[in-house]
Amino acid sequence: MSKKYHIQRREFLNRSVDMPAYAIAIVEDTREIAIDDVDSWKWGEIKLMFSDCYRSISFEFDLSSITERENSLHKIRVIAEVVNSFREALEIEAASVEERLSFVPLAKAATTIQRSSTAHPAALS
Questions:
Q1: What is the pTM of this model?
Q2: Which of 15, 72, 79, 82 has the highest count of CB atoms within 10 angstroms of its CB?
Q3: Are 28 and 3 in contact (CB under 8 A)?
């Protein structure tokens, strides 16, 4: 029987192919494995990995006992909450930088005009 997955996904995180950062998420679907094949359904394939081109991190999610299942669910919920909060903050900051950059040429022009209007009157003639 071939394995089935709830998710089996790899995504590259950068738009440039020269920068191989990635995210991998795998959760095997063990629902159709026979109940007497305990090792197969109790230890299904579960992986969450991230890489930023130079470093990698992987998280372990153990579902073998009630305590481990509760901890694994707590862990992924906290990770998701932190990542989503980070994304929201990053979007706000990116918009702020973008907005300020649109004013930089105007600010430089205003400074140039202000400097030339404060120049010595004899220098203007």
A1: 0.76
A2: 72
A3: yes
